[in-house]
Amino acid sequence: MIDHQVRVHPSADRLPREDQLAWKLAAVATGTQEAADLDPAAAAMAVNRVIDNASVALAALLRRPVAVARAQATAHPATAPGSTVFGSPVRVPPAWAAWANGTAVRELDFHDTYLAADYSHPGDNIPPLLAVAQHTGRSGADLLRGIVAAYEIHVALVKGICLHAHRIDHVAHLSAATACGLGAMLRLPTPTVYQAVGQAVHTTTATRQSRKGEISSWKAFAPAFAGKAAIEAVDRAMRGEGAPAPIYEGEDGFLAWMLDGPEAAYTVSLPEPGEARRAILDTYTKEHSAEYQAQAIIDLARRMREKTGPLDRVRSLVLHTSHHTHHVIGSGANDPQKYDPTASRETLDHSVPYIFAVALQDGSWHHERSYASDRARRPDTVELWRKISTVEEPEWTRRYHDPDPGRRAFGGRAVITLDDGTVVEDELAVADAHPAGARPFDRDGYTAKFRTLTEGVVTPDARDAFLDTAGRLAELDTAGLADLFPAVDTAAVAAYDSALPKGLF
Prior knowledge:
By secondary structure, the chain is of the alpha+beta class. It has two domains: 2-282, 2-methylcitrate dehydratase PrpD, CATH 1.10.4100.10; 292-428, CATH 3.30.1330.120. Helices cover 46% and strands 8% of the residues. The protein contains 21 helices and six strands. It has helices at 21-30, 40-59, 64-74, 94-106, 126-136, 140-160, 171-186, 190-203, 218-238, 254-258, 295-308, 323-329, 345-348, 352-362, 373-376, 379-385, 394-400, 443-453, 460-471, 478-481, 490-498, and strands at 2-7, 265-270, 314-321, 388-392, 412-418, 423-428. It has a four-stranded mixed sheet. A two-stranded antiparallel sheet has the order 1-2. This is 2-methylcitrate dehydratase. Residues 288-466 form the MmgE/PrpD C-terminal domain.
């Protein structure tokens, strides 16, 4: 790996583009090996993530934000060839397919994650890449190359540049990674990808209010917006249009005004020419439909429930955890909405007190039932929920940022005090499904997740056909990419969509 030092430069420096971070990202993308030469483990993990995305997208087909995005997309039917939308027989332009499918993938907060200096869901790169692959006649091997490249860039940015400390939403890193993945997939020249990265970052920098206070359905739309913007940026760059530059290092640029200011300096580590792209192997998926920092907490609650006895005896429950968990999904966020029984699903899946209460009571977690309004309003749940708080513990914060992925921890220590003064405590560093957890997800884990989430949505034969197709991703031709969208009851989907209010399109 090469450590690239990135800092703010005044315009008078005339920083050569080859020295700019956007160029270096583009060069890594365009230098990504052919699919046959990719690291075998990285290629296999890319297939797992295609399966994972389809699982959660299909499970979310009849959720309102997904239906809205699908309705907007299908109002723009494409001239051939176009791109496929989950749940619809209508092909649409690739940017609109990325919009609809990206929203479907993100809606349940149930696909992959990578946490380092910042947050990310690198699987959000896949919908725009797949949409463009279909529309431009690319093969499965091309798509695979693009996915691996996008993950490489995304992980590098998330390791090197913290956005959330400045309340900038993490999709700014996503859009750059998607532009790079598209460049790798389409075999674009480095100067073209460089311009696309600049445009994508410039147009997708947004605040983290989308994940604060009363969290709305925009949380599901946000990565889809970034993917759509990245496609449009690549399209403009291919037509010869330029971008603000230097987008990261400029004195009025991203680092200087959005992040650490004129004295900003960061280190972004990128692979050397010819070095294997293995960053996807550092990422991990979710077993539970909730914010990633809650994954280990759900598993911990399931483990502790047998030790506590009747939960009406709980006087208090304090979760000692990292800065991120305490301040983003814990009581340290100072969001009263995180304790509100009438809060939106999006808010509840960013409330670790709620999540711990329900998991402790039920001993399980379900992507729909655990968030149902009657479940959130249950009096015994509300009573327990409001006894739960979080505190930051420096050791958990240190473990959260440990440079060794094998020692990095995203969990916490729960201290439960009962009404007689008895204290019950336990801790869990990582979720059971994490690569360092009790039962890490392998291909069988992804396959089981797909079968569970698509029960009643996709026929058994169609499920088997999809899994076979996904497993042969590197061998697929363009026509075969359509088989990555399993057949569903499109009449039922259309009936649901037709009941929605109409918009402009």
